[in-house]
Amino acid sequence: MSNNISRRSLIAATALLAAPTTLRAQTSARLLIIGGGFGGASAASFARRHYPEAQVTLVEPNTQFVTCPYGNLLLAGERQISHITHSYDGLRARGVRILHDRAIGIDAPAKRVRLQGGDTLTYDRLILSPGIAMRWGAIEGYDQAASEIMPHAWVPGDGTQTLLLRRQLEAMPDGGVVGIAIPANPFRCPPGPYERISMIAHYLKKHKPRSKILALDAKEAFSKQGLFQDGWRALYGEMIEWVPGNRDGKVVKVDPRERVLETEFGTRHKVDVANVIPPQSAGTIAIEAGLANDTGWVPVNTRSFEARAAQGIHVIGDANIPGPMPKSGYIAHSTAKQAVASAMAGLRGEAPPEALYFNTCYSHVGTDYGISVVGIFRPNADGTAIAEVPNSGGVSPRGDLPEQRRLEAIYADTWYEAITKSMFG
Predict the structure, then answer these.
(1) Hey, what domains does the chain have and what are their CATH numbers?
(2) If 0-12 CB within 10 Å is exposed, 13-18 middle and 19+ buried, where does residue 119 land?
(3) How far apart are the first and last CA of the chain?
(4) Which of these, 377, 331, 380, lies nearest to 352 by C-alpha position?
(5) Cβ–Cβ < 8 Å for 343, 301
(6) 274 and 254 in contact (C-beta within 8 Å)?
(7) pLDDT tens digits for 12-62?
């Protein structure tokens, strides 16, 4: 095993076990968590393990959670929906009060949250993990109705969109074209579209080998680019065409009825299946509560993840914009722990504990072919900025390294199993 792989594995394992250290909060502390994804479920699980005397309530509309990670393997036919669907029963068993309802309003001064079902909840500290919202209309013609024809498959929860895209791939004739529209940064899971390209190519190579993938990208570069493109050439030959923004890759308009993707300079691409990943923002409740700035994302104190616009509300997961850290599931998991510890410290009038955030992101490119990127981040003393710890990060080495690729695919699988067990018990 190479030193690089050993280091990445150690970082991944350490990050799952690492937890901020702080004194226990007062017994009567009411911690309310909105959103049951990677951020919210991690926060609830961590709070019950480390602050068992606190009252922890999780509000999440879905009764089960279908993850975005490993959804691309469902598209490849390598996983079933049951493999990426998780129950909240483990959190209930740990003592988390779970309400399957939707939070629709936050009264920050009164410390109250209004639910769609009519109830109002009060809290001492709020952990808000609302995920993302699609910016409908940011691409002309792409609205919620259009997503039923050109699925984005970019929001977890019930898996409806991912299954829709899978059915469309299955129904497409051999020789068809799959068009994928990829947004500019920032957006959820920077390597995600490129793993999706890989996994769709994996499916097409096995079942529809005369087909093509046209990836139209608003950017000129992307995460793990060299590694992905090496894998595409080695595994899929000429099946994949990636068009960057400076070569007219930015999709600005769609025609769902004709399945046409139109780029910035008027080029019209007719495809058989269209996966449109539109620009995104913080979840709607964060914006309506006035927590987001003009970017559509929520600025936070990078030590406590407290929203700069409202004291006592800690915003975690993809909704915040904490500098150079990517919007990844692992960052959501890592920062959720710090947000909970900071919330509990704040209730005692104490400063947030020292913080160190971990990111490990694995991607599947093909069978027994995994790649990864890692990073460790540290905020400054007052939480106004964050930076990657020098010499802490890196990506998989390039080259003809089949054993390394095989091992990293295994590490990816164990990463997913470990993090979901930590989240959901």
Answers:
(1) 3-134+280-424 (3.50.50.60), 146-276 (3.50.50.60)
(2) exposed
(3) 31
(4) 380
(5) no
(6) yes
(7) 444 444 444 433 434 579 999 999 999 999 999 999 999 999 999 999 999
